[in-house]
Amino acid sequence: QSALTQPASVSGSPGQSITISCTGTSSDVGGFNYVSWYQQHPGKAPKLMIYDVSKWPSGVSNRFSGSKSGNTASLTISGLQAEDEADYFCSSYASSRTLAFGGGTRLTVL
Amino acid sequence: EVKLVESGGGLVQPGGSLRLSCAASGFTVSSNYMSWVRQAPGKGLEWVSLIYGGGDTRYAESVKGRFIISRDNSKNLLYLEMNTLRPEDTAVYSCARGGIGATWAFDIWGQGTMVTVSS
User: Fold this and answer.
1) Which residues of chain B make contact with A37, given a CB cutoff of 8 A?
2) Rounded distance, CA B93 to CA B48, Å?
3) Considering only alpha carbons, which residue of chain B is nearest residue A42?
4) HSE (CB half, 13 Å, CA atoms) of A28?
5) Does B62 touch chain A (CB under 8 A)?
6) Residue B44 contacts A, CB cutoff 8 Å
7) Out of A45, B10, B48, B52, which residue is the most buried by the measure of CB atoms under 10 Å away?
8) What does each of the 110 residues of chain A score in pLDDT, given as a tens digit?
9) How far is residue B29 CA from its own chain's centroid?
10) CB–CB of B19/B106 below 8 Å?
């Protein structure tokens, strides 16, 4: 069982927006602004999409945005494109000085 | 080119040991925090261990006391020494670089090396 809870799957049509949630506790997501999001295509290494809740690494599209409210962080993808179809994982620094990952969400672009 | 390449995986019996290596190019491992993350077949990501630039280390509870993260600055290599291996340690192990200016977020990942623990 993963430390952070994500929906197993989400889907959307091209051009639409979708949001993936990542729920933790006050000891991780709610306690620190150190939530990251990763995109992983099949057989590929994860790619950092968002860090520190809402910051973009160089080269990442601003169609991807992150936010947090209480113990739940969210990744929103606007203007869905076919290439966005992938698995998405959240992670959060925790008070135990460790890192927790979510179980992952499979995004399907219809 | 900034790159990470892991090696050292393989088949090992329960209770056995293995040492993974991660070769970095395009940057210096000692200047960044570095981590090992694993992914069991068909499963999600699981953080394993981290080493700060200053040398402090952190471990997931599931591997504490069994795994050791270290680095060789002269060779620009990151290591993960794994002891008392269990079947549940079976996974692809990837090394990852801490993102500059980011906290516990990893901007460069290797492709991983497979570790199978089975009799």
Assistant:
1) none
2) 9
3) B42
4) 25
5) no
6) yes
7) B48
8) 568 999 999 999 999 999 999 999 999 999 999 999 999 999 999 999 999 999 999 999 999 999 999 999 999 999 999 999 999 999 999 988 899 999 999 999 99
9) 13
10) no
